[in-house]
């Protein structure tokens, strides 16, 4: 056997950095290194924003281990990225070089956030995990209350229902609606991170705290309950609900396949994608809801409006959504192409969303406009002059922020609504739509992550 090299364990040492001039606390410093590294004597020299003469922010210096040794540099919080005075840590012995890593967490951030070790992110100089609002942690817990299920590898089950007809008689309808609402809530709570709450960019909604998320969004509840339950089948409207479920983690040592669990053999053509299987069960037992897609097909306007519970989750715009949307299109193609009424296939796919934060806004633009060929409605009607603007009015079920005047006694907030449209081409026919759909799914299988038109 080879001798194992004795690698010293990394230790964490917390220090409070205070202003050398007025004594005010500035930040918590998290020092990481081996015992030997941390034993090296050091001095901390920090000045708060009030006591330090303004220094221009340094650009391009990112070697922070060394940077902290220069006491004239700004002290930047690693959580909110704001400058909190300036200073650094220097070795007490001349000629010695400090080897431990320094992470800076400003005092407001230590009050507001906690790091979830299960949520992933961070590396190198920074500790492992993701900073989230403290409200998401139970007393004394190091991990947050959000789901930590890894969806990339486990088996998923998907079903598409025409609503309300397919589901309103289901005994489990309330259970499933509550699961939808909970997933929506959880996705909204994923916004309780410094990138969003401590962004300095102008935002009409102004989400700054956990309480803001609660008051401005969550308290109104999941807006799509009515979408599922209200009958609008009249006048050529069809609505679909695509639900994706993940198996709850099996007990240690015991792994089962879906076939074993349901006692049924899974048919080959029910495998839709690498790890996604079609199900005909409304509320699969022992499973957790992980994805919701709502599609509204207007046969007369030739439009499909698509929405999800968490448009700001990049995962929802990628992998799993390909299959959910393709399955929904299957239903639409079956209905449309078999109908003697000669229904024209959809020509426009569109999405709507409220502006929640500049960070999310950027992500949405990247995902939909830059990568998937959507246009803002203004631009769309210019490009396609025969398109009627009034065919694209924000539906209620995507409105998560209530506008002023929406209800008596509730002031509401006016935040911009984004309406994006993508063309499928007026000459689209059912056969070509079917081919396009199959092509997109197989491309995704190769590349993972390019949902049909989305
Ligand atoms: Zn000071
Ligand atoms: Zn901070
Ligand atoms: Zn977590
Ligand atoms: Zn905007």
Strand order of the largest sheet: 11-12-9-10-13-14-15-17-16
The helicity comes to 10-25%
Strand count, sense and barrel status of the largest sheet are: 9 strands, mixed
How many separate helices? 12
The first-to-last residue Cα distance is 54 Å
Which sequence of SSEs, written as H and E, runs from N to C? EEHEHEEEHEEEHHHHEHEEEEHEHEHEH
Mean pLDDT: 84
Low-confidence stretches are 1-5, 60-65, 253-263, 448-454
Kindly give the count of domains: 2
Give the overall shape, derived from the CA principal axes: elongated
Bound small molecules, by name, code or SMILES, are: zinc ion
| Structural class by secondary-structure content | alpha+beta
User: How many E strands?
Assistant: 17
Taken as a percent bin, the fraction of beta residues is 15-25%
Cα gyration radius (Å): 26 Å
Topology:
Layout: E1 11-18, E2 25-33, H1 35-39, E3 42-47, H2 64-67, E4 74-76, E5 83-91, E6 101-106, H3 107-112, E7 113-116, E8 130-133, E9 156-163, H4 173-189, H5 194-197, H6 210-216, H7 225-229, E10 237-247, H8 258-262, E11 271-273, E12 276-278, E13 287-298, E14 303-308, H9 319-338, E15 348-354, H10 358-370, E16 375-376, H11 377-383, E17 417-423, H12 430-447
Parallel strand pairs: 9-12, 14-15
Antiparallel strand pairs: 1-2, 2-6, 3-5, 4-5, 7-8, 9-10, 10-13, 11-12, 13-14, 15-17, 16-17
Helix pairs in contact: 9-12
Bound molecules: zinc ion (4 copies).
